[in-house]
Specification:
This is Phospholipase/carboxylesterase/thioesterase domain-containing protein. GO terms for molecular function: hydrolase activity. The protein has 148 residues and is α/β, with parallel strands linked by helices. The chain is built from 6 helices and 4 strands. The protein has helices at residues 2-11, 33-42, 63-68, 87-100, 127-132, 135-143; strands at residues 27-31, 49-53, 74-79, 106-111. Strands 1-2-3-4 form a 4-stranded parallel sheet.
Length: 148
C-alpha cells in the first residue's frame, strides 16, 4: 500500500511535471488480491475511480470506508463460478457501495460462468482478463469527470 501511494504522490508532484499524465484521471485497476487492495487505496481519494475484478474481501466494508467511497466511480467484475474468491464478496461490496453512492456510479458486471474458459483450480477467476479486454471500461473512464 505504502509503495503504491508513494508512487502516485510522485506522479502528482512537481518532479514529474514533464510527464504527460492527467493527474485528475488516475484510475486503479485491481484483480484478485489487487482488487481488494484497490478498494482500500480508493478510500485515500487520490484516484478518479477504479475497475475491480474478483474482489476477495470476505467481510463488510467499515462505515468510514463506505462513506469515503460515496462519490467514487467503481466498476466491479466477478464470475459466479469463481472457485478462488466467492462472487458473494463482490455482491456484498456492490450492495454496500450502491446503498451509499450518492452519484449512482457503481457498476457491476456479474458473469454466470468464466468468460475466458478457465477450468479446474482457477475456474471463474479470470475476470481481470475479461475486464481488461472490455472496450467499454475505457470509454467509461474517459466519460467520467476529472477527480475533484
Amino acid at each position: 500500500r505504502g509503495k503504491v501511494l508513494k508512487f502516485i504522490d510522485w506522479i502528482c508532484s512537481q518532479e514529474a511535471q514533464d510527464m504527460e499524465v492527467d493527474r485528475d484521471r488516475i484510475f486503479l485497476f485491481g484483480f484478485s488480491d489487487g482488487a481488494t487492495l484497490g478498494v482500500e487505496l480508493l478510500t485515500t481519494l487520490r484516484f478518479a475511480g477504479a475497475v475491480v475484478a474478483a474482489y476477495g474481501f470476505t467481510g463488510t466494508l467499515p462505515p468510514l470506508a463506505v462513506e469515503r467511497l460515496e462519490t467514487v466511480p467503481i466498476w466491479v467484475f466477478h464470475s459466479a463460478d469463481d472457485v478462488i474468491f466467492p462472487v458473494a464478496c463482490s455482491d456484498r461490496l456492490v450492495a454496500s457501495l450502491k446503498g451509499s453512492n450518492i452519484q449512482n456510479n457503481v457498476r457491476f458486471t456479474r458473469f454466470d460462468h468464466d468468460q475466458e474458459g478457465f477450468t479446474g483450480s482457477v475456474q471463474g477467476h479470470s475476470t481481470g482478463i475479461t475486464a481488461s479486454r472490455t472496450p467499454e471500461i475505457y470509454k467509461w473512464m474517459l466519460s467520467l469527470p476529472p477527480k475533484q
